[in-house]
Design goal:
Elements lengths: L5 E2 L2 E2 L1 H28 L11 H17 L1 H32 L4 H28 L6 H33 L1 H22 L16 H26 L7 H26 L4 H24 L5 H9 L3 E2 L2 E2 L8 H22 L6 H27 L6 H29 L5 H23 L4 H6 L2 H23 L1 H8 L4
Antiparallel strand pairs: 1-2, 3-4
């Protein structure tokens, strides 16, 4: 157990993890708010000068790997370093990545992205696990409340990051914005080391250490993979290997789908599940598809909607040119404001025996996302008329997207934990995060369709893109409602 000192009535170690996560999210969302804008910004404006399709693919690949590398990151913590050292190493690698982005070279930019996804894969899944280790098995109420406090740290970091990093990046120098993100992560790492004594014994033990020979073999394989990765990076640097980001992104889109499909097939056939477990795993497969579709729309925030704000939104307020990246601070504001309201609504409806079922809430998430892009269609017609859209269109869009995530994300996450056979919970959570990875990747590819030159010739391209997303979301919502009854049967006692 951790220290007896308290943080709002919780173990003092919660403060250590709260501020570490806050600064990690500051670094992530601060950099993400600038990333796509920087990639497609002209070289004479300090950007990389990529076309929109390549920029969207690079952005999508980056956000995809952030989620995918959480899987090996969790394995490394469980089998090699333990949670605590993994968090520290991850934070150091993330900071190094941001400072690589702060250098004005294309080569260091891609190395920086590589470092950040590797570091995030080590830190992000393991710091959440550390929160759980601060509480005993009999302390479930405080444990749940502790995660709520921890969640606030995420939103505080996500709120202030675009304001600081976005202003520096867009109004001063792109690389200053990336450097600010790196400084935030350094503060998080320093804070973690200075206060880790408050964590007590939490996160020190390597859960699946094995014997010394096993550890050495694992370290050897990890070293071989890192060396192979380093060789690949050097070959890219020397242009011996040239990677087409659009082709790579489209390949990964299909690869993730095929791998997940094969995994579910393997699980259903070879994992010796009983009839009830098979039904629930089939339900998880459906939730995977719904989640992936939802996030193709939701994760347009950092790419499609960000570039719309930059190019087609009137950003002058009271004579001040507002950075486009500042809109990225809206979701955490909305989350903090409306999560308690939605939670109270579900509790109230449950007391009246009218709480919507899981399939209905999932479909609501899709409907809200569709409505968000209906708002973007309205904004696009303003652009077609020859004017710039007012910021209120994006305010409304982000609000509706947040409503969608509140309906879908916690329900989907909770559903996975409840539906998974006990021995497969970890792997099924990994599958859930692969849905997020796939959604992020496709969202980046969508952003590539807002080509500035094409839009200049035919602004209706904006309407076509947003209309496609609306149709996809609404059609998916209708399908979910149509299969709600059989889906509930598959879920059994999980409602």
């Amino acid at each position: 157990m951790a220290s007896n000192k308290t943080f709002f009535g919780h173990p003092r170690g919660l403060a250590t993890l709260f501020f570490t996560e806050m600064w990690e999210r500051f670094s992530y969302y601060g950099m993400r708010a600038l990333l796509f804008l920087f990639i497609v910004a002209p070289i004479h404006e300090g950007g990389l000068g990529f076309d929109d399709k390549s920029g969207g693919a690079i952005y999508g690949l980056y956000t995809m790997f952030v989620y995918l590398l959480a899987l090996p990151g969790g394995w490394i913590a469980d089998n090699l370093f333990g949670l605590r050292r993994s968090i520290f190493y991850g934070g150091c690698i993330i900071a190094a990545g941001h400072f690589c982005l702060a250098l004005p070279y294309q080569e260091t930019f891609f190395i920086g992205l590589l470092f950040i996804v590797m570091g995030t894969g080590l830190l992000k899944p393991n710091i959440s696990s550390m929160v759980g280790e601060l509480y005993g098995p009999e302390d479930q109420v405080r444990r749940d409340n502790g995660f709520s406090i921890f969640y606030m740290g995420i939103n505080i970091g996500a709120l202030i990051a675009p304001i600081i990093c976005g202003y520096l990046g867009e109004n001063v120098n792109w690389h200053y914005g990336f450097a600010a993100a790196g400084i935030g992560m350094v503060l998080g790492v320093i804070q973690f080391k200075l206060t880790e004594k408050n964590l007590g014994d939490a996160g020190i033990t390597v859960k699946s250490a094995g014997d010394q020979a096993t550890q050495k073999m694992r370290l050897l394989w990890l070293s071989i993979m890192l060396v192979a990765l380093a060789i690949f990076v050097v070959m890219m640097w020397l242009k011996i290997i040239v990677v087409d980001p659009v082709l790579l992104a489209n390949s990964f889109k299909w690869l993730i789908g095929i791998c997940v499909g094969l995994y579910f097939t393997y699980t259903l056939i070879f994992e010796k599940l009983d009839a009830d477990e098979k039904k629930k795993v089939a339900a998880i497969a459906i939730v995977f598809v719904i989640t992936a579709i939802f996030y193709t729309g939701y994760e347009g925030q950092g790419s499609t909607l960000n570039i719309f704000a930059k190019r087609y939104t009137d950003l002058v307020v009271a004579g001040f040119a507002t950075p486009a990246s500042w809109f990225q601070s809206l979701p955490p504001i909305y989350v903090v404001t409306f999560v308690p309201i939605f939670t109270g609504l579900w509790i109230f409806l449950a007391s009246k025996n009218s709480n919507p079922s899981t399939p209905v809430k999932l479909s609501l998430g899709l409907v809200f996302t569709a409505l968000a892009y209906v708002a973007m269609i309205g904004a696009s017609f303003v652009v077609i008329s020859g004017q710039k859209a007012l910021p209120t269109w994006l305010f409304l869009t982000y609000l509706l997207l947040t409503f969608g995530e509140i309906c879908l994300y916690p329900i989907g996450l909770s559903g996975i934990t409840k539906l998974s056979p006990k021995r497969l919970v970890g792997r099924m959570m990994g599958v859930f995060f692969m849905a997020l990875a796939l959604g992020n990747l496709v969202a980046g590819l969508f952003a590539g369709d807002i080509d500035e030159k094409v839009v200049a010739k035919d602004p209706h391209v904006l309407v076509d893109l947003f209309q496609f997303i609306v149709i996809m979301m609404m059609a998916s919502a209708v399908v979910v409602l149509l299969i709600a009854k059989p889906l509930r049967k598959l879920m059994g006692d999980v409602r």
